[in-house]
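Exercise 3.2. Students should predict the tertiary structure of the chain below and write it as structure tokens, then compare their answer with the key that follows.

Predict this chain's 3D structure.
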Amino acid sequence: MGLLLKIIVFFILISYVLRLLSPYILRWSMKKMFQNSQYKQAKGGDNSKVKNKNPNDENLGEYIDYEEID
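Answer key:
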């Protein structure tokens, strides 16, 4: 019974400590992400993810019109 009580107290203490530290950890991580995004924008931006999609591209393939069979 003593081991079960120690485990329960341990989890309660860990949850309490995490509840106290979570705002500081969140604030630090958001500040770090903001700094990284500003650095990327100052560096020239990361435009590799944005692609121009042209619907008349020749690599699309052939259009096939399927007929419904009764």
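Discussion points: Helices lie at 2-43. The mean pLDDT is 84.
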